[in-house]
Design brief:
Helices cover about 15% and strands about 35% of the residues. The chain has about 160 residues and is α+β, with helices and mostly antiparallel strands. The chain folds into two domains: about 1-20 and about 105-160, Alpha-Beta Plaits (2-Layer Sandwich); about 20-100, Alpha-Beta Barrel (Multidrug-efflux Transporter 1 Regulator Bmrr, Chain A).
């Protein structure tokens, strides 16, 4: 386990198989992790799911980052705040749908502030022992900053592998 400030992460990964994941998303464009746009987007997504009777105990909160802030200007970084759904949702307004394909993933865990995600991604990319497969990497947020101290937040990073 490595530590940086109030964050701890494992460069050792678990390997897991994931099934198809149907997701509803809202897009954020701007600096990753900026407080106000992210809070607004996540709150809007949860409200949308509740209004569509699509939020349950089985709902997984997922983040998909499309850009590397080491090469893309931070104000142009694209992020989808997503939630898994068990029923068909018709996209409308700011909300779309996307499917993550089933497959094998290397899974890394971050304990602590979301601000540690970029450092963890950087370390993974330097020390990645697997062959990548076509697919999207994603993050799963296992608890919420609303009811969890920052140092106890748990985030899993899923990277598609062969």
């Amino acid at each position: 386990m490595q530590s940086s400030g109030n964050r701890q992460y494992h460069l050792q990964s678990e390997i897991c198989e994931e099934g198809d994941l149907e997701l509803v998303y809202i897009r954020i464009i701007g600096k990753y992790g900026e407080k106000e746009p992210y809070e607004t987007a996540w709150n809007s997504l949860i409200h949308f799911l509740e209004n569509n009777h699509a939020f349950s105990n089985d709902t997984r909160l997922i983040g998909i980052s499309f850009d590397d802030p080491n090469v893309t200007q931070s104000k142009q970084c694209r992020f989808y705040a997503c939630a898994s759904v068990q029923k068909k949702i018709v996209p409308r307004g700011a909300f779309g749908t996307i499917q993550l394909q089933r497959g094998k993933y290397a899974v890394y865990t971050l304990k602590g502030s979301y601000s540690g995600l970029q450092q963890l991604y950087n370390n993974i990319s330097i020390n990645f022992p697997y062959s990548l497969r076509h697919g999207m990497a994603f993050e799963e947020y296992l608890n919420s900053p609303r009811d969890t101290k920052e140092e106890n937040l748990l985030t899993k990073i899923f990277i598609p592998i062969k």
